[in-house]
Amino acid sequence: MNKVEGLHHLAVSTGNIKEQIDYFTDKLGMELQALYWMHGVENTMHGFLRLNDESSIAFVCNPDIAEIPRVLGSSHAGNPAANSAGGTMQHLALKVSGDAELLAMRDRLRSKGVPVMGPVEHGMCRSIYFAGPENLSLELSYSNAPINNEEWIDPEVVALIGASPEELANYKNPAGYDDEGGNVPQPDVTQTPGPHMANYPDGAYEMIMGIPDAAILDSVESEPPVNISA
Q1: Domains and their CATH numbers in the chain
Q2: pLDDT attached to residue 5
């Protein structure tokens, strides 16, 4: 059984969180769910915009982010067909329920001055494309049925990426895992190949990964900033 069962939140850095909140609420009709100081991160705000009860688009904002250059073709793609550096977000596709909703959202965006391309029929989905603040490349999309991997995995592309038949079989049907009740210890971060989180001061990553799990659990503020039960 797949234990990863959906998107909880996708976090996007921003130098102007108000501009992003205004865009996603006004242009896309998404509701602001949360706006608070990001837990454990100095001088940084965190904002959540609702996709559904369990999924959100989140923004991370502090004054330093506004000073980091946005470089098209490097830090940002700028459009859904352009390049950006490996590990960065090339574009963000959000789901709508069908064609009527897709066209209604196109009308909403265009009525608010946002140019929109599409719909484009991809076979597995139908999509429209447009831009968000700070060179975000955005898409709205829907599918009429789950993607069939027997139809949509191209043997030519499989060969180009160098995947063997055995690897492809594992990609399509990953091996299960017998849970160990949360009892697997942290690997030695100085010995394991990772991948590893980065952009920490010297020694900080090793220190953080050495903190016992029980201490990490309650290490940040977990109460909402507004007490509505008082």
Answers
A1: 7-68 (3.10.180.10), 71-147 (3.10.180.10)
A2: 86
